[in-house]
Amino acid sequence: MRNFGLIGRKLGHSFSAKFFGAKFQSEQIDASYLLYELESIDLLPKLLTDYRLDGFNVTIPYKESIIPYLDELTADAREVGAVNCVDVRDGKLVGHNTDITGIEASLHWLDIEPNSKALILGSGGASKAVQYILKKHGIEYKVVSRDKSRGDTTYDELTQEVIGSHHLIINTTPLGMSPDIESAPEIDYSALTSSHRLFDVVYNPATTEFLRRGKERGAKTMGGMLMLQTQAIASWHIWSM
Questions:
Q1: Do both 117 and 222 map to the same domain?
Q2: Of 64, 74, 100, 218, which one's alpha carbon is 20 to 30 angstroms from that of 132?
């Protein structure tokens, strides 16, 4: 049996084990997929000693901090600066980024208008993957962070005019994720219109508070489930090569 899993700090919200469990059962694949909560990324070497893993996914908050523990990075993962998929091959840990595949599929579904400008809420690993895809498609963006040194602007600086002129808004923070489903990024939702497109990388719940407020203003919205499924399939493709 081959063994796979997901590492992160808090994984009670995760659908990954269910997704892969159903896939393995329906396709009669002799493999398991388990959740491994780590209080610190420093515990990764012990985890890999205690459990024989053939590959694993990485989620909040370790997509960036895992990099020093890896032997190799793909070109995409190196350019993004974040890893969400690790292939264990010939004793080496190889870091990949399949989030970019999921993000690209989600943005395609949203049917972004030409010359749109974007606001990326958050500056962590998921944000870096979003930045990579927006650059690829020539979409101008600003990174919004609580810490000005980690982004282009802060939430306090998001005027109605700024929000009104950026028709694509992407939440890459965990705000709104189960069980904290009533939280949402602190932006002026009254500035949203039917011309706006809102994408949330959070997939549990399917409609976050961020997306719900956008829908109230007529915006087209997209949750993170398509991204989750697409990046998971891409991860399996890597592990199966």
A1: yes
A2: 218
